[in-house]
Amino acid sequence: MEKIRNNAKFLKKILEKKGISIFAITKLVLGDPRIAKTIVDADIEYIGDSRINNIIKMREAGIKAKFILIRNPAVSEIKQVIKFTDMSLNSELKVIRMLSEEAKRQNKQHCIILMLEMGDLREGIMPDKLDSIFKETLKLEGVELLGIGTNLKCFAGVIPDDTNMMEFSNIAENIQNQFGIKLKFISGGNSANYNWVMSSKNIGIINNLRLGTAILMGLESIKDSPIAELEQDIFTLVGEIIQLDKKPKTPKGKFKTNAFGEPSIFKNKKIRGKGFRTQALLNIGRQDILETGLVPIADIQILGASSDYLIIDVKNNKFKVGDKIKFNMSYESVLRAMTSPFIEKRYVNE
Fold first, then answer.
1. Residues 6+ apart with CB under 8 A from 191
2. Are 214 and 228 within 8 A, CB to CB?
3. Which of 140, 248, 337, 347 could be 100's S-S partner, Cβ–Cβ 3.0 to 4.6 Å?
4. Residue 159 falls within a domain, yes or no?
5. Can you give the residue range of the structural domain that contains 27?
6. Domain identity same for 148 and 275
């Protein structure tokens, strides 16, 4: 927990020097209130999450932050969005109008950031429609238009660079000039933007990033490379050996696909062989984690996973049933492990 707090403090300090504010994103950890509190304790004012239920959970846990729904609100969520969030990211005018009506019913003022499509083909208003949607949003009661944002890397894999970021900045500046307003947030993206922000000589008027991976894993998210000044060894998965035995290196009989319809791993001749290997089953499986995103700390080989078991070659280790095996994890493995109700969460150095 201390490492998460330190990462948040460092990022806040270094990005403030660039004129960049932070929305800390908690979707990776399922809106975990303890982790959210740790981030807030690092003087981060805004917490963003993609799931309204996560935000409700943090609110009800007493987390003192301004909450942002970072996924386009669903029509079925409108009442909860107004009740439990301070702000939402939007790219559908119909939904914004519904937020406006609900905000008036609840006697609240809800803040809006309009998301702009800049090439990654996920959420976002096409640039040629931005003016009209911006104008219509300004007319609505119950909602306050605080900024525009964009998102790259997450779907098509388009990376932030000087070209698309300056185009986005210029659009934001033109919008401000056209409507004679000063937007509070020009949100340029996520942890994939970190290296660009730190290396670019001109970030235009971009003044906000939405950071989850950087805070929670110490990584930028283009190549998942470590950010030198940040802590990376924050999440450790611990599995328990529940079976240990010598088994043949090659299956007996014909084989084709596994339970998930995937080609058998034993089509890879490097895995097959003569003789036996000491094989262990751990009490975690694909229902809990992404096995290809696990990096064992001990010298073992991950052979694969079923729904309920992780299967490993223990190599020369003298393990026994009941021993614990530790793993570092990729972003997706952390996401699945935090989401799984079968993975116990333990917190260190709160």
1. 209, 211, 212, 213, 214, 219, 220, 221
2. no
3. 140
4. yes
5. 2-217
6. no
pLDDT at position 256 is 84
* Contact predicate 143/136, CB 8 Å: no
Q: Which of 283, 287, 328 has the alpha carbon at shortest distance from 309?
A: 283
Is the same domain home to 168 and 66?
Answer: yes
pLDDT at 350: 64
What is the average per-residue pLDDT within 249-254?
87
User: With the C-alpha atoms ordered 234, 12, 335, 224, is the resulting torsion angle positive or negative?
Assistant: negative
Instruction: Indicate whether 277 and 178 sit together in one domain.
Output: no
Instruction: Name the band, by pLDDT with cuts 50, 70 and 90, for residue 265.
Output: confident
Distances (CA, A) of 331 to 40, 112, 139: 22, 28, 40
Instruction: Report the pLDDT averaged over residues 132-142.
Output: 98
Q: Is residue 275 part of a domain?
A: yes
Check if the beta carbon of residue 116 is closer than 8 Å to that of residue 127.
yes
**Residue partners of 254: CB distance under 8 A and separation at least 6:** none
Of the three residues 156, 185, 217, the one that is the final residue of a domain is 217
User: In terms of C-beta distances under 8 Å and separation of at least 24 residues, what long-range contacts does 219-222 make, across chains too?
Assistant: 219/191, 219/331, 220/191, 220/192, 220/194, 220/195, 221/153, 221/190, 221/191, 221/192, 221/194, 221/331, 222/153, 222/159, 222/192, 222/195
13 is catalytic: no
Q: Going by C-beta distance under 8 Å and a sequence separation of 6 or more, which residues neighbour residue 33?
A: 57, 58, 61, 62, 63
Which residue among 12, 27, 37, 153 is the active-site one?
Answer: 27
Residue 196: partners with Cβ closer than 8 Å, 6 or more residues away: 160, 161, 162, 165, 203
pTM for this predicted structure: 0.95
**At 266, is the pLDDT very low, low, confident or very high (cuts 50, 70, 90)?**
confident
Rounded to the nearest 5°, which phi and psi values hold at 199?
A: -105, -20
Same domain, 107 and 207: yes
